[in-house]
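Running this now, will post back.
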Amino acid sequence: MSVYHRIICFFLFSFLGYLLECVVLSYENKKLVINRGFGHGPFCIIYGFGAVGASILLKPLSDNLVFLYFASMMMATFMELVTARMMIKLFGSFWWDYSRKAFNYKGIICLESSIAWGFLGIFFFRYLNGFVSQMSFIVPEHLERMVALSLLIFYIADFIYTMRLQLKSGCDEDDATMIGRLKVY
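Update: finished.
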């Protein structure tokens, strides 16, 4: 598997994570929710990093569902905690809020989501990883490099643009916009 193929898979996982976030939040809010990524494109790259991390770190546990479940739960919860801490340090806030959920820690992580992350880890190894890998093969081999680099350039430009906007605004948006950063229709 080429590095370009892996980049395409990374962005496919990021896109699927974006869709998952939009669906779950639309259901919870009983309104259509879009724009759950950091930037303006349809990507939640924490899911791309989670997929890459799971592929590397959790692969040895993939045959033991119990260990895989708890390792997935811990890894994803840890990623959520670290991401929130980085966002708080950079922007003074983070873009989700579990404070209304039972057994939460400062609204950053909660038991309900941690339980879901464990099941998502099993789903990842049983179905999703193979599916995404097959989907990425739709891109003809001679176009992999161009597609992968285009995705990277788009995301990097979007990331820089969004960072500049966030840092320029001094993170003085109201909590409803900053925490959750969702567009509800």
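Residues 173-185 have pLDDT under 50 and may be disordered. More later if anyone needs it.
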